Structure formats: C-alpha cells, structure tokens
C-alpha cells in the first residue's frame, strides 16, 4: 500500500526503511556478531539525528538493534491525523517508506529499520527532517507578517 503512494516522477531512490524484514536488503549482514558494531553506530546516528526532528521521538535508545520504534508527536504537525497518514504522506513526498505503528498495534508510532548502511540512513533522516519541517505547525510569531509586527 505505501509503495503505491511513492511518486514515480521524483528522482529520489525509494528507501523502504520500515519494511518488516531487513534481510531483504543486500547490505544486511546475517552474522549477529558482525552486525553489532555497525548497528551500534546506526543507533547512535539515528538517535542523534532524531534530536533535531522534534515530532519523531525515540523514547529509549537501545544498545544495538535492527529497527527503532519512534513516537510521532502529531500535535506538532499540521494536517497529519495519525501514523498511517504520516507514513503515506512521507512516501508520497519523499519516497521514504516507514512502517506505521498501527501495523504493530501501536497507534501514532512508527518503525524505522536501521539495519542498513549508514549512508542510506543519513539520506533517509535528511528526507524525514525536510518532511517534518514542511509539516510543522507554525507558531503565532512565525505566521505574523513583518508589517504587522512593525505596526505594533
């Protein structure tokens, strides 16, 4: 369903980072011991970058994992009603696919697969940040025009 929402005219590679089985990616290693250092690095990378994206929160940083469950702070976003709406719009606008929490029984959460190469995560996080920035609710001071502020 989410892949159907990706735009074909956008020249960005589709990054399905919410897929339930990360082993479908050729870069995913099968040896658990070999995964630990890169996965630890990916956890650090994602958790650090999410600090700059206020509407996507990782409440507990794991030591190492292949995916993260993140909470969506929908009250900070404009025009997004739930996790499914968030993920569908993200797929349409950024060709970035995450698994909505609804699929796992947790509403308004999202699963991000991090068992991929770091450069893919960096690209995905940049897209996610841009999407969230565009959809963040504007504060009263941000929506005031410069002339209305000058007239006060």
Give a quick rundown of the structure.
With 152 residues, the chain is α+β, with helices and mostly antiparallel strands. It is built from five helices and six strands. The protein has one domain (3-138): Alpha-Beta Complex (Aspartate Aminotransferase, domain 1).
Describe it for me?
This protein is α+β, with helices and mostly antiparallel strands and 152 residues long. The chain has a single domain (3-138), classed as Aspartate Aminotransferase, domain 1, CATH 3.90.1150.10. 38% of the residues lie in helices and 12% in strands. The chain has 5 helices and 6 strands, in the order E-H-E-E-H-E-E-E-H-H-H. The chain has helices at 32-50, 83-94, 118-135, 140-143, 146-150; strands at residues 15-16, 56-57, 67-72, 96-97, 99-100, 109-113. It has a 4-stranded antiparallel β-sheet with strand order 2-3-6-5. It has a two-stranded parallel ribbon with strand order 1-4. A hairpin with an 8-residue loop joins strand 5 and strand 6. Helix 1 (32-50) runs parallel beside helix 3. It starts with 14 loop residues before the first strand and ends with a helix. The model is unreliable at 20-34 (pLDDT under 50).
The total count of strands amounts to 6
Which sequence of strands runs across the widest sheet? 2-3-6-5
Q: Output mean pLDDT.
A: 80
Distinct helical segment count: 5
Radius of gyration: 17 Å
Give the biggest sheet.
Answer: 4 strands, antiparallel
Overall tally of structural domains: 1
Molecular shape: globular
CATH class: Alpha Beta
Oligomerization category of the chains in this entry: single chain
Query: Helical percent range?
Result: 25-40%
Domain Aminotransferase class I/classII large: 33-128
GO molecular function, one term: pyridoxal phosphate binding
InterPro entries: Aminotransferase_I/II_large, PyrdxlP-dep_Trfase, PyrdxlP-dep_Trfase_small
Protein name: Aminotransferase class I/classII large domain-containing protein
């Amino acid at each position: 369903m989410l892949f159907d929402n990706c735009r074909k005219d956008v020249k960005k590679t589709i990054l399905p980072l919410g897929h339930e089985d990360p082993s479908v990616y050729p870069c995913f290693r099968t040896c658990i011991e070999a995964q630990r250092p890169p996965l630890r690095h990916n956890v650090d990378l994602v958790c650090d970058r999410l600090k700059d994206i206020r509407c996507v929160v990782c409440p507990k940083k794991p030591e190492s994992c292949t995916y993260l469950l993140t909470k969506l702070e929908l009250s900070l976003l404009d025009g997004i009603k739930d996790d499914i709406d968030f993920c569908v719009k993200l797929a349409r606008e950024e060709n970035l696919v995450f698994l909505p929490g609804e699929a796992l029984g947790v509403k308004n959460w999202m699963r991000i697969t991090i068992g991929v190469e770091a450069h893919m995560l960096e690209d995905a996080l940049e897209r996610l940040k841009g999407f969230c920035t565009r959809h963040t609710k504007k504060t009263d001071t941000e929506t005031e025009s410069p002339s209305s502020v000058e007239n006060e």
